[in-house]
Amino acid sequence: MSEINKRIALLRDFMVKKKLQAFIIPSTDAHMSEYIPAHWESRKWISGFTGSAGTAVVTLDKAGLWTDSRYFLQAERELSGSEFVLFKDRLPGTISIIDWLKSELGDGDRVGVDGNVYPAREALKLQSALEPEHIKLVADNDPFDEIWRDRPSLPKAIISLYPAELAGESAGRKIGRVLAEAAKAESDSVWI
Asked: What domains does the chain contain, in order, with CATH numbers?
């Protein structure tokens, strides 16, 4: 069994324990960053696909990876020898993740996502698409804390201010401008 297929088996064991019939693994971190720390590279770890964009979906008996045309050749090469099937996202005739889940799952089944990294907008869209099929979305699982034994730790870099000479203005002045606008709008808080 390939290393990737062993990882899929570990995820499936977790899924059985949590009563999940599918699990979706996006290419995101808890901050929806474009470039993510190694700790959050769960899709890369589970699939072996190293491209920066893609979503893996594992059911109890199938595994698929959706990515765009920038990565078709790379994905075919990197998924070779594993259970993962490549779905060429956004091409005519390629089934969407939602439609694939609907075709693979049934009444009462449960789809897991890590709510820390799965975008809220996508979760709402997924939930509303699956509800008519009586498929439930469960967003409270991070299986990779349990199954990825040598998972890199979270970054511990110290946060520092970007120098004013490079930013063009100090952080204090920028904050002051935001607060002034909030005061003009008679706001008592600001979402950033």
From this structure: 3-147 (3.40.350.10), 160-192 (no CATH)
